[in-house]
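During data preparation, a discrete fold description was generated, as reproduced here:
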Amino acid sequence: MISRTIRAVVVAAGLTSLFAGSAAAQQCGGDFSRFLSGVKAEAVQRGLSSSAADAVLSGASVSQSVLNRDRAQGVFKQTFLEFSQRTGSASRLNTGKRKIQQYASTFNRAQREFGVPPGVLTAFWAMETDFGAVQGDFNTRNALVTLSYDCRRPHIFRPQLMALIEMTQHGDFDPATETGAWAGELGQVQMLPEDIIRYGVDGDGDGHVRVKKSSPDALLTAANFIRSLGWRAGEPWIQEVVIPQDLPWDKTGFGGGMTAGQWFRLGVQPRDGNTRFSNLPTALLMPQGRKGPAFLAYPNFNVYLEWNQSFIYTTSVAYFATRFEGAPAYNKGNPEPGLSDSQMKQLQTILSRKGFDVGKIDGILGAGTRDAVRSVQMQLGIPADGWPTPQLLRALQ
């Protein structure tokens, strides 16, 4: 699973400037004991107990394995069909349906209080930890201490360490034994400590928010968090469609400015037949081009992009959520062959030389590369679906 801390990095980068004057918040590196003393002093200054700080910091150590992961994060190069079929398997779908029945009262509460449907929560639960089975094996305390002590991004991780101390003070976290992802996400739906503190819900009524051990706590906390990201109750998030071969391709993708109704009038047909949300703005997404699966993304899809910025992940988990809500499996279509890793890097290099901002030359079909591909496709007079093919690469060489 790709770390979601990138989202937190972006958010926190905008917030920490408000506290730039805090000397304690800027401490990193140097003598480790002095660093820990500074963390404790800041925690106490924030109103947290000395004993909770000691419980977290006593015995803490720098984890080289965390540093290694931070400096060599995996890249996401699977196609939509590859990733969505692997992660949204029939076995997972059946397990998720059983979980919805098992925790029916929790899911009903999540929809009643936060407006988040069961399928949405279940898809995240499945994708993030396989329903709690794989929550990560990095000691969370040591991971956040390490990333706070390291001077790459201490302003991102130190607030998470403070939140972890607060969770410990509440009796919701055992710093000596509890584990999670390398970047500090923890629990059955993989959330960061600050988000757990802000949006935590005691789902099982035991007086605690324990997102690692309690499924009701984890699910309701996730639902509250999803609502905070702008979830619009009662509205769809993604809808599979069948598209004609002739469309205003310049209007596809994000930022096209078309409503669902406008797409319907152009011949785009929803597979479920539902046209009740014709007035909502949409984006027509084709993860593997116009010959592969196609979807209309509604405003709620933005929440998925807030959760994880990977286009393939977000489209896959959003689609999987519709399966739990009764949608059929998508039509795979017959996508044109894509590019190999080396070919994608060649394409990115060419596009960069032409003045397009594709970001790092990394072989990943990210948003910048997709936008650039659509632009050159329009210049060449071919359907601008954002899917790079060997034929396109040859045309640009």
About this structure: The longest strand covers residues 253-259. The chain has four domains: 1-60+136-186, 103-135+187-228, 238-324, 341-396.
